Amino acid sequence: MNKKRVLVIMGGTSTEREVSLKTGEQIYNNLDRGKYIVSKLLINKNEDIFKILSMKDEIDFVYIALHGSFGEDGSVQAILDTMGLKYSGPKMLTSSICMDKNVCKKLVKDYVNVIPGTSMKKDSLLKYEDAKKYGNKLVLKQVNGGSSLGLYIVDNEKDYNNAIVEIFKLSDEIILEKYIKGIEISVPVIDNIVYPTVRITPLKSDTFDYESKYSDDGAIEEVYEFNKSLQEKINSMSKTIYDKINCNSFCRIDYLIDENEVVYMIEVNTLPGMTKASILPKSLMSKGIDYKSALDLLIESSIK
Q: Does 92 reside within a domain?
């Protein structure tokens, strides 16, 4: 059997660099050497992606272990497309759409529930009193960030204004949403197959923020089967979203379920974290798919 030559790219220049390095190293270390010849490239500045040109003839597949801007927003995907290289995850347009939470919500809102809200730029900021039309408690976050960086829950004018200042340090656009208390879940979809739901219970805050995701004992993440009707709703929504964003490989979709079992899409992750402790590997492990086999599955779904 001819071994596939896989290059893992990691690092990057976004605020999620450290997460990317952890993901990339675990992918690099765990790709099956019986199936792949594996190399890696550390991205310290965006131009480093063009180092691939000198090794292009020795690469069959690029595993993108980047997170955040440049890696998930369609930029790297477009560059690899021009090089004629296959890579992990959705294509350029889908990646770009899903990176912009506001655009993604607009694309799917006619088919699934999305959290009520709007987006704001510096020239279109809502005053606190006007923002309260979405609720007395509000969520503010950057439009194109991940790992829950730049996420704030506020219920007064001072915190609202402070959140705006802090988020504009990370992004030029803000998502403003109604705060909905409920259960957070995440669902992987790979090659149009919905995998088991992972229920997330934050232990250190009201939501699954950066500290909850990456600190020890920050949250309980467990594979969870809801009642038949609710689980069927979650699975159906996941298939619909996967189809409407034209994913054609893999993604992880995050949801919020309120007290009346209304399911709201939060966002779509086109390059979900892939440390062994990440949500997607936990979901697949519950189906008997170990970490190495999960990497095989993600590569196969991207190549077809």
A: no
